[in-house]
Design goal:
heterodimer; A: mainly alpha; Cytochrome Bc1 Complex, Chain D, domain 2; two-stranded antiparallel ribbon; about 55% helix; B: mainly beta; Porin; 16-stranded antiparallel barrel; 18 strands; globular
Chain lengths: ~180, ~400
């Protein structure tokens, strides 16, 4: 009898849960979702490790494991698309030809999904505020181009950032 | 009873299916992916008297039927001491994504009780070479008797995810075949692997369960409970439970879990477990821990009558991982791991573990570890091991 009562409660809750929907009106950052969720259990895997068609099969597996919503999974896949296919990403993302806004570059490549800049951003990677003053501009430029050159376990993706965008970003992050 | 349970199950699934979103075929033609992990270990253990290499290969098969249904299966393939290949089905289930935040799972799945079984047990994810002292599943041979040695079971589960302000709330519920009495099995059956040994010892205490009661009396009254998943059930009562967790990502996740299952044929004797788990993540360290308390029913003789009494046990572990390479760049991707675990009331034991991990890349790690287990009524154990774990 005790079990029956508890099973009744279980069935009731399960039915209620199944009938509820939760939608977020705010656009989600795929980079931020990777920062927030992957490292809860394991190191973030390099995006380039799998093809996009493979990620599209892997992410439903991770959706259940990491308690992600379908919308969140799609946002992560969208970010991976940018990071994993540079040639296509250049076409998808309109090239910046006029004055490059460093904040737009940060947003474009999801930098603050994992790094803090002026107090805002993720914590998976180190803050970028002092990266150039502490490590030098040459380190910063190489780190963006070759993310694993100084740390084999770094999960930082190699982004399709242009030389011009990188220079603007380095200038923005340099000590004033 | 069985029919009633079946009707309840159908009601639950029907309620969900009635409000399902339209089914769409997957856009991608690539629907299958083969991933997994494996490890090679050298271990020297005092009590077991072993000094040997071992290896495991754990393939995971992922298959997207369409954008609403996803199949996953994990096998563990390893060699036993006699050189025979052992294969174990860790999980094989199908997820049905009912809507944006609801997932229904059916099959043999990892139980959402705590976090170790569901998320941290793969060797390339577990920062320690060994399973925590309060868990005994997944090939763990250890001096400590586990609290709730369940990794996976067969049944159905539902998961819900909510965003509440800056927090995420996770709900998991499950119903499975559950445990059974070890005594119901063939008495001549040889318990060979560490998995079963752990189960058999769990409720075969050699010490007094209650200081006020005679040891022999309890020893006879206390049954042995087996948790290993099967495609059968010895009673009509299904095990059930779930987990509720709150996460302030990316830094904090705290959860509480419940498990209850009848293990005797009459469905009168339950084992109940409560758990609390915590996961703190920062740039320089990770802190993981779980506390589990179990209550096991058993028939005991009081005033010449058999009555049901409950015996409790509790245990916990806390594991800290420190990314020392973040502080001293010359150490690269080196981590230091420290873990402490205790079990109390029955088979009391205490363990310290220290380890150093060096990551070759984000999914390949060399772990060197030493653990020292102090068993209250039994031989203490010391172990040293080196493990190369990889995810692929």
């Amino acid at each position: 009898m005790k079990n029956q009562s508890i099973i009744n409660i279980f069935v009731l809750f399960a039915s209620l849960f199944a009938s509820l929907h939760v939608h977020s009106s705010e656009p989600l950052s795929g980079a931020e979702l990777i920062n927030n969720n992957c490292a809860r259990c394991h190191n973030s895997r390099p995006i380039q490790e799998f093809s996009m068609s493979e990620w599209k099969v892997i992410m439903p597996h991770m959706r259940e494991k990491a308690h992600l919503t379908g919308t969140e999974v799609q946002a992560i896949l969208n970010f991976m698309e940018i990071a994993a296919t540079p040639a296509k990403a250049v076409k998808v993302i309109e090239p910046v030809t006029i004055a490059v806004d460093p904040r737009e570059v940060l947003t474009r490549y999801g930098c603050q999904g994992c790094h803090q800049v002026q107090g805002a951003g993720g914590t998976l990677g180190p803050s970028l505020d002092n990266v150039i003053s502490d490590r030098g501009k040459a380190f910063f430029l190489r780190k963006v181009k070759e993310p694993q050159f100084n740390n084999a376990s770094s999960a930082m993706p190699q982004m399709p950032i242009t030389d011009e965008e990188l220079e603007v970003l380095a200038e923005f992050l340099s000590p004033k | 009873m069985r029919i009633i349970n079946t009707i309840r199950l159908v009601t639950m699934l029907s309620a969900g299916l009635a409000i399902q979103q339209p089914l769409h075929a997957a856009e991608s033609s690539d629907r299958f992916v083969f991933v997994g992990y494996g490890d090679v270990k050298y271990e020297s253990a005092d009590v077991a008297g072993t000094d040997a290499f071992s290896a495991r290969f754990v393939p995971i098969f992922l298959f997207s039927l369409n954008d609403k249904m996803h199949v996953e299966a994990e096998l563990e393939v390893g060699l036993n001491e006699d050189g025979e290949t052992e294969t174990e089905l860790e999980y094989a289930d199908i997820h049905y994504f009912l809507n944006d935040n609801t997932t229904i799972t059916a099959g043999k799945f990892l139980l959402p009780f705590g976090q170790f079984s569901a998320n941290w047990h793969p060797s390339w994810i577990n920062r320690s070479i060994w399973t925590p002292g309060i868990y005994g599943a997944h090939g763990s041979s250890q001096a400590m008797d586990p609290m709730l040695p369940i990794l996976s079971d067969v049944g159905v589960a539902a998961q819900q995810v909510y965003q509440v302000g800056s927090a995420k709330v996770f709900f998991d519920v499950f119903m499975t075949n559950g445990p059974r009495s070890e005594a119901e099995h063939d008495e001549e059956e040889v318990v060979e692997d560490d998995h079963d040994i752990a189960f058999a010892r769990l409720f075969s205490p050699t010490t007094t369960l209650d200081p006020d009661v005679d040891e022999d009396e309890h020893g006879e009254a206390f049954p042995e409970v087996e948790f290993e998943a099967t495609s059968s059930d010895n009673n009509s009562n299904k095990a059930f439970g779930g987990r509720i967790a709150v996460a302030f990502l990316p830094s904090i996740e705290i959860g509480t879990s419940y498990y209850q299952g009848a293990y005797d044929e009459g469905g009168q004797l339950d084992i109940r477990a409560n758990g609390i788990d915590i996961n703190l993540i920062s740039t320089h360290a990770i802190l993981r821990g779980e506390y589990i308390r179990t209550e096991t029913d058993a028939f005991v003789e009081r005033d010449h009558e058999d009555v049901i009494d409950s015996f409790s046990r509790n245990g916990w572990f806390l594991q800290g991982t420190f990314f020392v390479g973040h502080l001293f760049e010359e150490l690269g991707s080196t981590e230091i791991v420290i873990e402490h675990a205790q079990t109390k009331k029955v088979e009391e034991a205490e363990r310290w573990m220290v380890g150093i991990n060096y990551w070759l890349d984000p999914r390949s790690v060399i772990k060197v570890g030493y653990e020292d287990t102090d068993v209250a009524d039994g031989p203490d154990d010391k172990r040293f091991a080196v493990q190369f774990s990889y995810g692929f």
